[in-house]
Amino acid sequence: MSAPPWRDVDTVEAARLVGEGAVHVVDVRTPEEYRDLGHVPGAILLPVDLIVAGAATLPRDGRPLLVHCEHGIRSIHACEVLAHAGLEGLLNLRGGLSVWTGPREFGPDAPAVSGPSSWLLECADLLPARRGRALDVACGRGRHALLLAGAGFEVHGVDRDDAALASLDATARRLGLPVTVERLDLETGEPQLGQAAYALVTVFHYLHRPLLPAIVDSMAPEALLLYETFTVDQAVVGHPKSPAFLLEHGELRRLVTPLEVVRERDGVHEGRHVAGVAAVKRG
Q1: How many domains does one find in the chain?
Q2: How far is CA 165 from CA 59, 88, 180, 194, 259, in A?
Q3: Rounded to a whole number, what is the distance in angstroms from the first to the last CA of the chain?
Q4: 2 lies in a domain?
Q5: Whole-angstrom distance, CA of residue 144 vs CA of residue 148
Q6: Paired residues of 195 in beta bridges
Q7: Integer angstrom CA distances of residue 70 from 14, 19, 35, 74, 187
Q8: Residue 185 covered by a domain
Q9: What is the pLDDT of residues 169-186, one digit of tens each?
């Protein structure tokens, strides 16, 4: 039997590596466990059922990823998925946080999950039951595309970043996920996204107002649009700052007309000022 593509470490070695700043710590427990049972200071929270998104979001700066759960079982599965996705330098904390002897923090009340937007997670109950085709607009390296493909959608990701698309394509192939990619400049000319082609369309942290009609056209009858991006309040605390990329409060609801908005939010989420809608194309 060949050795697994990760290495088990005990709590002594793990504590030393953390103390030296030699690893990124990835906590694959639930947000409730992270908050209530305590976590390694600075640990990245990415629950194991969302781990496929980690291929697009976890740091790749040469430092190993120290993966752990509570008892060392879920973390093995997480290491398997990440290894298949092409990540290297994986370490598994044997015994999990139950044997951890290093520093531990508790809270916050709503810990931020690394990976997919919480808006996608909050709207999971609205996703089409029969799955079908999904379009991920400005998909980047695929933090949402990979997760949706793992959930049974056939995902088409469009972006103009060749490197990001190549990364997404390679990761999806390694994991055997149904994802196709297309290089498309969404802000030049009149991009075509298809006609009534998708049961689900997602757009996150991207805004080009002239593209909205093409997005609506790409949706099949009863299709769902999940859209979330920055509001004008974000300019006060960080980027982006250009009004071209920032929503006025209440604007997104108007932009997605004639869709029926079935859920929305506006506020600070994952440390960013954002507004989101879930909207359905009726008829």
Answers
A1: 2
A2: 17, 20, 9, 19, 29
A3: 56
A4: no
A5: 6
A6: none
A7: 14, 20, 13, 8, 46
A8: yes
A9: 999 999 999 999 999 999
Task: Give the residue numbers spanning the domain of 69.
Answer: 7-99
Phi, psi angles (nearest 5°) of residue 175: -90, -5
Between CA 33 and CA 27 the distance in angstroms is: 10
- pTM score: 0.93
How is residue 158 written in tokens? 């469009």
* Token pair belonging to 282: 């009726």
Q: Please report, as a single letter, which amino acid is at residue 216.
A: V
Query: 109-159, pLDDT tens digit by residue?
Result: 889 899 999 999 999 999 999 999 999 999 999 999 999 999 999 999 999
Residue 105 lies in a domain: no
